[in-house]
Request: fold
Amino acid sequence: IFFRGRAGVWPCPSSSSMSYGNRGPALPPFNPPPFRGVPPRGPASHPPPCGPGAASPGVLSSKDQVHVSPHLARLLDEFTNFPYQDPNQPICQCGCGVPVAINTTTNSLCMAMLDQSGSDYTYYKRIYDHCIAHVERAGTVAPMSLQGFKTHARNCGVDKYGWAIVDVTAASRVLQLCMQTAAQGGKGPATFESIVSIGSGVAYVEFMFHQAAQQLGCGTQVHCYDILPHCYQAYLPLQYGTPETITQSFPSTARSILLLVWPPIGHLLPDGSPAPQPNTTPNPMASDALRRFVANGGRFLVYIGEKLQGGCTGDPEFHRMLQDGNWALLNEDRNGNSTISMDKWCPHADAAASGANFISGVSGNDNIWVYFLKSPPRPHS
Reply:
C-alpha cells in the first residue's frame, strides 16, 4: 500500500521498516525551503524511543514546550480520538493491522510537522518529541498505530535532513575548538580556508557549518561532495566527488578541515561500484579520505558517528587509524563522552541495530568528535 506525498509515493507508514545505515535517504529527497535564520534551539530533554520497549519520552520541560500549529493540533486530536476498537474500520491490506484512515492521518501528521519545522532539524526533533509525548499521555492510540507514527515520523526527518541532528551552535563550537587548537603554539592556521565534506548526502550538517562560519565571520568555505549528487536536493551546492577529490581539487589541505558525517561501512567501493566479492569488503571511503587528507597536509578531522568500531559508521581501517597515538581527540570528557552535545534519534545503549548491516546494537548513538593530528604530515609535493 502506498501513499503519495510531496516526496513522491510512500509505502504504508505502519509497515515501513526503513533504516539508515548511511546518510542517503531511502525515499526521494525533499526540496528544502530557504533558511530563514531560525535561531538554534536546544535539544529536547526526552529523546524518542527507537523500537519496541523503549522508554517513553515523557513530558517535556517548560523550556522545551512546542506550540504546534492549529493544523497539527487538529491532526493530533484526530489521531488520539480515533475509534481504534471499531471493527467496521477498513484495515490496511499490507498486513500491518492499522486502519486505513490512521495511515492517512500519520502521513498528514508528518507533513504538518515538516511544514512547521521548515529548515530547522532541531526544531523538527522537538516537534517530534512533543507529539509523541502528547499521544502517549493520551493513552488511547493502538500500539501498532503509535509505533507506525514514531517510525514514519523519524524516517521523514531523516529523509529531509539526514541522520545527524547538528545545529548551528554545535557547528560553531566545533569551528572555535579547531581555531583555538590551531592557534596554540603555532600548530597551524588560526582560521581555515575550507571544510571538505566527502559523502555529503543532503548536506544539512554542512549547511549548519556554513551558517556557523558566517556567524563567526571566519570566511571558511564548505565544499560538499558525493558519489550520487543528482540523487539529492541538497542544502548546499553538491558536486560529484570521491576521496580522490581531496588530492585532485585541493593543492593542499593544510588549512582545511575534513568533515565525515556518518561515513559508510557498507559493501560498496568509494566510487559506488560493488566490491569484487559482495559482503566481504567494507566500504573504505572514510579511511581512504582520511589518508589522502593527511597526505595532502591536513590535520583536523570532524567525524560525526560512533566513536568505536562495531557500529554502522566508518570502516575498520578508519577506526584503527584514529586509535593511533598521533591523533588527539579534542572534545572527549573523562567519561568518554563528547563535550559538544547534539540531539539524537537513538541515544540509548540498546538502540535499534542498523537494518543495513546488523553489526551491533548501538547504531544510531552518534556523536560529534573533533580530532587533531599532533605530528605534521610530510610536506605535500
Q: What stands out?
A: The radius of gyration is 21 Å. Confidence is low (pLDDT under 50) at residues 1-10, 17-63, 349-362.
